[in-house]
Design goal:
single chain, globular
């Protein structure tokens, strides 16, 4: 089955290339970005400014191809692609929970940007802890990798 999406806007960040980017929002503290939402969708931003964080869903437009076994940025062992957040995926969709700074007409300013400049935005959802936060979780292979997240940057392994 084929599914088609249309971008609802564009994400702008300081990152022109994939090399040396933060690999997750938690490693991008304070890095600012903004979104220009398609003007005809501006009314959909009503009341969004009451939230501190939002979930951005976007197209990983610079990723092509994939491998079902991949070595994630925080590991040296191959893992199943669905047990990672590697950008080369059967459907190149990214998600990031970012801190909302402001909404002004069809412009959204945020921080903790971990995506490439001019990334096509597919959707925005409010982050609601009652819906999205789970206190007791297992994190598989990542459990022993947490300490290296904030200092890790992307490299050329997914190009």
């Amino acid at each position: 089955m084929s599914i088609e999406f249309t971008a609802i806007g564009t994400i702008y960040t300081p990152f022109e290339t994939k090399d040396k980017m933060p690999i997750q929002p938690a490693a991008a503290a304070g890095i600012k970005g903004h979104i220009i939402l398609n003007k005809e969708l501006e009314a959909g931003l009503t009341d969004l400014d009451g939230f501190s964080h939002i979930i951005l869903i976007y197209h990983l437009h610079q990723s092509s191809g994939y491998s079902l076994l991949t070595t994630p940025f925080l590991d040296t062992k191959k893992r199943g692609v669905f047990a990672t957040r590697a950008p080369k995926r059967p459907n190149p969709i990214g998600i990031s929970v970012v801190r909302l700074l402001s909404v002004d007409q069809n412009r959204i300013d945020f921080e903790n940007a971990d995506m490439l400049n001019e990334t096509p935005l597919l959707d925005i959802k409010p982050y609601i802890p009652d819906f999205d936060f789970i206190a007791e979780v297992k994190t598989g292979w990542y459990e022993n990798k947490k300490q290296s997240l904030t200092n890790r940057r992307s490299d050329k392994r997914f190009e």
